[in-house]
Write a structure and sequence with these properties.
Chain A: Its cofactor is FMN; [4Fe-4S] cluster. The complex is a heterodimer of chains A (450) and B (334). Chain A is of the alpha/beta class. Chain A has 21 helices and 13 strands. Chain B is α+β, with helices and mostly antiparallel strands. In chain B, strands 2-1-5-3-4 form a five-stranded mixed beta sheet, sandwiched between helices. Chain B has a four-stranded antiparallel beta sheet with strand order 13-12-11-14. The structure holds flavin mononucleotide (FMN), iron/sulfur cluster (SF4) (2 copies) and FE2/S2 (inorganic) cluster.
């Protein structure tokens, strides 16, 4: 099966001509000329492709929920707002090989019956917006966009919209509000976008990577795509690897790759830098629960942990985590879990839209308490206070940002409570921001295993 | 029509009714509190989260429980739905959490706040709040500002229920204020240097559940419980002209719209009635305003008991106590 990044190193692959020479836009030809829209949707269903934006919802199923009976126009909106700390794969894809997204947008729009589609790009990615606009112009000049594409009776307009400059605008309903020109506050659901999305019309919102994957699904069939991967985790996934590793970057992996191989093999992260030991991993972007070394390499049952939706969530939140958006953040033994958590929480505090009370007030509260603990002004009660505040946010908010803020706090304390206690007990030792770089925190539990 | 059971009490309501409004049809303790929902303003609700309830059975057709607590003010009932409000420990815990969140950054300056005595947050905190705060950080503060010559915005007290922005959208012809910034730095604000100034803007004061928007013509004049509220009306060509006069002796200290049992205004009034007729002679007095006996404003005002209502209350109480015995409504949180 063709990979998303297969031709990434071909010089000039960002231009239409070179991309086309390497098999680009074939899926548009195949779909528009030889398939009905429903047949395309059927292939996507068969492929088992799951949303790559974070929640992992099956794409084909989402497409089939789209209200096709409504007399309103239908829209496809690509979520390119990528703002989750630790996630930078969409940027890489759009920058290096923008036509794969444009191709995926055309094929997917055809399947959904959308006549106007949008790519909502993170506001800070201004240079990417220019790259995409140029790619759209090229596609249009070659007859792949606009009226009567390739001489068929299918017409499509594709627009790029710069985002509002807020993480919350990546939440799909906030994105739609923002796209409509309003304040990016998430909407209450139901109704879901499939019924009333953009301009109250049926809408599908998908991540950049999800839409790009549609090209090879159409070219080579859904069944062919489903052969890659394990179980319900089919296909390949872009992983943004960062942190204390020898080779940070974006990697395309086959789902099902063992985590250990991903971290230590030279083909991927190349092991922990400076010959240090692995301490913890945040496997799917800042929102997912952090896991200590022994639980990220092996599940609680002792089986090797795999890079797949199911394996990473094996054990629930007690001993597992989530694949999320694939932002793989690795921490070595000198990392301070408390400091790292404070940084994450500061982000959620800053990015909460402020609509609902638990998230608006709770994120700020957690940040302030963590700031105190990290700087040596914490009390023992603060640790349970944090657990309680996180619990009162989780599940009680309008959108999942509340959960995303609560999970890292709950999991860090679940797996690294001793380290929080250490900060309270030895305020003098943690005054220096580099405290664990000087002398790694020693705990039997944390450093066992690797 | 849909049959729904709330805390063991069954009620039949029109399709599309929300859980909150179904509970209000039952009345009494099973009614969830509401800080952002406002029945006479479209699209309000869903934000404050104090009205969260547990749906233990989605409907007769699909009896699965809902995975999370839901905002009762925005969740429509289904036929056969079973809901727990005060019979669920999980709901009470979550609500306590929400009240705590609403209070951590609230200034608690009730002793100098004009809203004291008729403040929804005070009532809510009295019922669900903790006696002690666990919050030891600095509280968020804002400067007080005038928005127009009649309204004082005291943003520090605001709970961001968004009700006033809906008033602006739905009752006035040009919206000049809204929410700026995000998260806990969000604030209600007018467009630069714009004053909130149009016929119906004064209703923002009545819909505000706390003392964030107060009537400048009444500021610091009197504690509300020292005033005598009278129902009164006048012929007005702009609005219904039905108001409450808040009086002391022969002086009219304040004019407001009439709030119902849940503190909601159903008939809004214009600014002329509110600000420009502070004279008893301008009004036809209907009689003393009925104030709920739980309100601090009603202290020392005795009223004859409505036997019919008392009977209904007792019947509901009996039904509710029976409902509490049911095993599934007595579960502890998972
Ligand atoms: C706070 C928040 C931020 C999000 N940011 C993004 C984002 O930047 N990009 C993205 O694709 N999905 C993001 N999502 C997920 C989207 O809401 C949505 O689930 C996704 O775009 C659906 O696409 P998919 O099914 O292809 O994954 C975010 C969700 C939340 C709650
Ligand atoms: S959970 Fe946070 S970000 Fe989401 S709607 Fe509520 S306040 Fe806004
Ligand atoms: S000023 Fe009052 S009505 Fe407006 S959002 Fe704040 S609390 Fe609500
Ligand atoms: S009243 Fe329902 S969320 Fe505020």
């Amino acid at each position: 099966m063709a990979r998303l990044l297969e031709h990434i190193n071909v010089p000039g692959i960002n231009t239409f001509d070179v991309y086309r020479k390497h098999g680009g836009y074939k899926s548009v030809e195949k779909a528009l000329k030889t398939m009905t829209p429903d047949e395309v949707t059927e292939e996507v269903k068969k492929s088992g492709l799951r949303g790559r934006g974070g929640a992992g919802f099956p794409a084909g199923m989402k497409w089939s929920f789209l209200d096709r009976k409504s007399d309103k126009p239908r829209y496809l909106v690509c979520n390119a707002d990528e703002s989750e700390p630790g996630t930078f794969k969409d940027r890489y894809l759009m920058e290096k090989i923008p036509h794969v997204l444009i191709e995926g947008m055309i094929t997917s729009s055809y399947a959904l019956g959308a006549k106007t589609s949008y790519i909502y790009v993170r506001g800070e990615y201004m240079y990417i917006i220019r790259i995409l606009e140029k790619a759209i112009e090229e596609a249009r000049a070659n007859g792949f966009l606009g009226k009567n594409i390739l001489g068929t009776d299918y017409s499509l307009e594709l627009y790029v919209q710069p985002g509002g400059g807020a993480y919350i605008c990546g939440e799909e309903t906030a994105l739609l509000e923002s796209l409509e020109g309003k304040r990016g506050n998430p909407r209450l659901k139901p109704p879901f976008p499939a019924v009333a999305g953009l301009y109250a019309s049926p809408t599908v919102v998908n991540n950049v990577e999800t839409i790009s994957a549609v090209c090879s699904i159409v070219n080579e069939s859904g069944d062919e795509y489903a052969k890659i991967g394990v179980g319900k985790s089919t296909g390949t996934k872009l992983i943004s690897a960062s942190g204390h590793i020898n080779k940070p970057g974006v990697y395309e992996i086959e789902l099902g790759l063992p985590v250990e191989e991903f971290i230590y093999s030279d083909q991927y992260c190349g092991g922990i830098w400076k010959g240090r030991k692995l301490k913890a991993v945040v496997a799917g972007g800042s929102s997912v629960p952090i896991l200590p070394a022994e639980l990220i390499l092996k599940t609680a049952k002792g089986e090797p942990r795999l890079m797949s939706y199911e394996s990473l969530s094996d054990g629930g939140f007690a001993t597992g985590t989530m694949l999320g958006s694939g932002g793989f953040i690795v921490m070595d033994e000198t990392a301070c879990i408390v400091r790292n958590l404070w940084t994450f929480t500061r982000f959620y505090h800053h990015e909460s839209c402020g609509q609902c009370s638990p998230c608006r007030e709770g994120t700020g509260w957690m940040e302030k308490v963590l700031h105190r603990i990290e700087h040596g002004h914490g009390h023992m009660e603060d640790i349970d206070l944090l657990v309680d505040v996180a619990k009162k946010i989780e599940g009680n908010t309008i959108c999942p940002l509340g959960d995303a803020a609560a999970w890292p706090v709950a999991s860090a304390i679940r797996h690294f409570r001793e380290e929080f206690e250490y900060h309270v007990k030895y305020p003098e030792k943690v005054k220096n921001p580099k405290h664990f770089e000087l002398e790694p925190f020693r705990s039997e539990k944390v450093l066992a295993g690797v | 029509m849909a049959k729904v059971t709330i805390d063991g009490i069954e009620v039949e309501v029109a399709d599309g009714t929300t859980i909150l409004n179904a509970a209000r049809q039952i009345g009494g303790e099973v009614v969830p509190p509401a800080m952002c929902y406002y029945s006479s303003l479209k699209d309000t609700g869903g934000k404050c989260r104090v009205c969260l309830v547990k749906v233990t059975q989605g409907s007769a057709k699909d009896p699965r429980p809902m995975p999370k607590l839901v905002a009762s003010c925005r969740t429509p009932v289904m036929d056969g739905m079973v809901v727990q409000n005060i019979t669920s420990q999980e709901v009470l815990e979550a609500r306590k959490g929400v009240v705590e969140f609403l209070l951590i950054n609230h200034p608690l300056d009730c002793p100098i706040c004009d809203q004291a005595g008729e403040c929804d947050l005070q009532n809510l905190a009295y019922e669900h709040g903790a006696a002690k705060t666990r919050y030891e950080e600095d509280r968020r503060t804002f400067e007080k500002i005038d928005i127009g010559d009649k309204i004082k915005l005291h943003m520090t007290r605001c709970i961001l229920c968004y009700r006033c922005t809906f008033v602006a959208d739905q009752l006035t012809n040009e919206r000049v204020h809204g929410v700026i910034n995000r998260g806990d730095a969000s604030e209600i604000s007018t467009y630069i240097e714009k004053a909130v100034d149009n016929e119906f803007s004064g209703n923002m004061i009545d819909v505000c559940p706390v003392g964030a928007l107060t009537d400048k013509t009444f500021r610091f004049k009197s504690r509300v419980w020292f005033t005598k509220p009278l129902d009164a009306h006048r012929n007005c060509d702009k609005c219904c002209g039905k108001v409450v006069l808040w009086t002391k002796g022969d002086d009219v200290l304040r004019v407001s719209a009439r709030k119902d049992q849940y503190g909601e205004v159903k008939e809004y009034i214009c600014n002329e009635c509110r600000y420009d007729h502070k004279n008893m002679n301008d009004w036809t007095i209907e009689g003393p305003r009925h104030i709920d006996k739980h309100s601090v404003i009603s202290q020392n005002h005795y009223e004859k008991i409505d036997m019919q209502k008392l009977k209904l209350d007792i019947e509901r109480q009996i039904q509710f106590q029976k409902g509490k015995q049911l095993p599934e409504t007595n579960q502890s949180p998972a």
